[in-house]
Amino acid sequence: MEADEKIEKISSQTLISNSPSKRIRIRPLTKASLVLRGTLVVLVLLTAYTFYTIDVKDVNFVQGMIGTAKNVKVMFLEPHLSHFSFSHALYQVMITLGLAFLTTVFGAIIAVFLSLFAAQNLSSKRVSVVIKGFAAFIRAVPTVLWVLIFAVAAGLGSVAAVIGMTFHSISYLIKAYSESFEELDKGVIEALQASGASWWQIVFQAVIPSSISYMISWTFMRFEINFAVAVAMGAAAGAGGIGFDMFMASSFYYDIREIGAVTYFILVIAILLEVLATQIKKRLKVNI
Amino acid sequence: MTALLEVAHVSKKFGNDTKALSDVNFSVREGEFVSIIGPSGAGKSTLLRCINRMIDASSGEINFDNVNILSLNKRELKKTRTKIGMIFQHYNLVNRLTVIENTLHGRLGFKTTFAGMLGIYTEEEKQQAIKILNVLGLNEQIFKRSDQLSGGQKQRVGIARALIQNPRMLLCDEPIASLDPSSSKVIMDHLKNISVKMGITVLVNLHQVDVALKYSDTIIGINGGQVVYNGSPKNITPDDIHRIYGSEAGKLIFDMGEIHAG
Amino acid sequence: MIWVKSMQADIFKKKKLNTAVFILLVCFVTFIAATITEFSIAKGIASVPKAIQWSFSNFYPTKESLTKLPDILDKMKETLLISIAATTVAALLAMIFAIFGSTATRVNAFFGGICRGIATVFRNIDTAAWAMILLFSFGQSPLTGYFALFFGSFGFLTRAFVETIDEVSSSSVEALKATGASYFTIIFQSVIPSCIPQIISWVLFMVETNIRSATLVGLLAGSGIGFAFDLYYKSLNYHTASLVVIVIVVSILFIELISNYVRRVIL
To answer: Which residues form the signal peptide (chain B) (predicted)?
Structure first.
């Protein structure tokens, strides 16, 4: 190679001699790459096993796919409301938004206080571990089960839905808030401590002001999620709102065109919320 | 010696009104060390990227090795790019890969899509990569992951990736802007060496006037997308610097005399 | 005029006013939301101790309910497998859409926009809504759950992957372009190696999310662990229902443990 000579020219040091017969491994195996490949292999194997064992209960896969494609076409191209009016649908959307809003507000208020004790730099290690563990447990129970459990005590309806959904919001926001509190520079807290500020003063004058944009973004993101959750709870746990209408259209009236119309309502609100969330993040210059 | 690179009447517009370059002309001889200096936003980066068409110029002509780069089709362009190495301010390495893998990336332009996709390199290429890394003083780091390196070391990997292309010319976009002074000196010395001993043409965008004056054969000063100075660093006057950097540059010229003396 | 001027000068007053307006606004919207949803705060607060009391007296597994454990575990296995399979296949498709949708690697802006647009629609129709749509064609079968999770995951993962590619690999893509490498070479040598840890991390996150959603989808589509819960819950067999919840919680915490370990090692 011509470049070889060029390289030799500028090199005065002796080169490591590699016998050309020995292959050079350019990517040594590390623990990280082993775990990475292992994870991929396990995921692929489990997927293959699933397809091999799945019991489809005499549903024809191809027919189902074709049927779904046709249904989706009808849904989106011929949406139509037959069992309720446009204004009713709009009102139901407002109810779903209302459920999501209440859940987010209650969740945020409770989570702010709990996350102060969950942040390791503001609290003791033991308290932090206890609260974070508690939050992890709450997150592990699916929202719908929380709602159904509360429904036994409070009856099916908005009360059980809001309380059940609030549980999940709290644990999600505790995680988000406390992580953003923990990112606060240790020096800031130290400086205020040195000036004789109390814990609550430090929280309200330094911790919250410096994390407020993150908190707003996370909270709004949770609102976005809560809207979707509220739709689902309307369908699965009798929480009311547009989700319930969708459930009725799907399971009682078998009206695919009505489902299409309801889907449009949900889609419009969801995309609006997503755009709004992106705008908020951009305005606050937050990258999460 | 004939010119290796000739830039003639090159302009670049972004959108309708933002003019990044207007009527830029200069030529570079084989083996020459050229520094392009100018204030931030003057169009230095755009100019460099127009040469290997990372950005397409709006009009003009760029001749490299007697080929008009702007008229090349996709395949020819890729072939030409293999002859031009590029070095970046932020190194642009794949952080998770090893140093030698990043170096070997310089060979990808010579491979078929299939071999490139799978990252199949010949033993000869691997030997070559090790040799180059040794020359650049990275013998300890060859099999380390790139994100474990210091900034100066990362930039040397960037240089290695360009050198293994066996290029005729190097384009260096602010190669030392993110480095401390001692690493900067190491990088600039390597680049100078490459130009002098290997005869590879080097085109560098620089922020530091003193560094440019010290290392270059030719200085090209750019302001507002236009070439306002093109000549030897020996002849540059405070007035020229003033024209390149605008009115605030007064203080920048403080040690010019010193550099000329050295 | 003087008043206005002093107001503007007083940054503290302005900040306080802003905060007050914000709090008032939130209170006002809360009030409206509570009205239209017929939510009563008093009833809500009262329900929490009531629910806790009820849970302690009814919602725990008994010896008798333990006999159902093998059944429940079987359903849980089905749900876990379906969640994983849906996520993996969705991730593959999402990767293709993300590569064509990311500004760093897209072929052209128009096609990129289409890819991201499709993902946006899929993402914003919730998994539960997908389940209700799919019920029409697949009925009460695991396939309904599978595709509901698949479509939801596809939309979410495409967005996550696009952001990852934009963030991680735009610089190395530029470098490889400059060496003259071809499009697919760049994808396989630069984009995939640099993004793969984040991608795996997102996939694991999606598996966790999907196991939770699978419970909900199972309720609607009559399959898996959600169906098991629904069965015992509706027949007022709360002891067994609580066992289902415990199995779900343990499974989710276990999966979280594994994925946290993998994340710690590979990131």
So the answer is: none
